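Example 186, ligand 5-O-phosphono-beta-D-ribofuranosylamine.
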Amino acid sequence: MHTPAPLNIGVLISGNGSNLQALIDACADGRIHGRINLVLSNKDTAYGLERARKSGIPCAVIRHRDFDSREAFDAAMTRMLHEHGVDFVCLAGFMRLVTDTFVDAWHNRLINIHPSLLPDFKGLDTHARAIAADCKTHGCTVHYVRPAMDEGPIIMQASVPVLPGDTPESLGARVLEQEHICYVAA
Ligand code: GRF
């Protein structure tokens, strides 16, 4: 039987990187047939960079503020991803909108995890909005990235109950636990 080549993964982050950690762990123990070639952050304070370093994964910071345009910033990211042999990109708490050019360059090789059951609650503050809307269930979605924000073919979703007395923090923690499972599975 022909075994497909391992995926060469690039992960884009802006912050804590707990989803990155889930991907690192899954590559290490074989649940993901691939390796993380590069972790890229737009912020030098992102804790995810520390996670990459601890695991011996190359990481770099490309500051969006150093560029005149989103196009130039995204082109720099694409260049560096190519330099590291990346062929599949995971957005994991990457808090920048990517350009259509970037989305086209990585068509069907670019996925995102979003903390809501899309198409509900695109954008930010999803947990507070789910509570305000009196939702009984909430969750997360892994999807292919398309030009419009938080849109694109859905690969996998996981749902959690919204419990009486939930705060955005308690609900967010319940969702995040599922994100780690869902992103790896997707
Ligand atoms: C996650 O909730 C993810 O869905 C959202 O940003 C958060 C990032 O968390 N896009 P982490 O950095 O992976 O811990």
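Summary: Residues 168-185 form the longest helix (18 residues).
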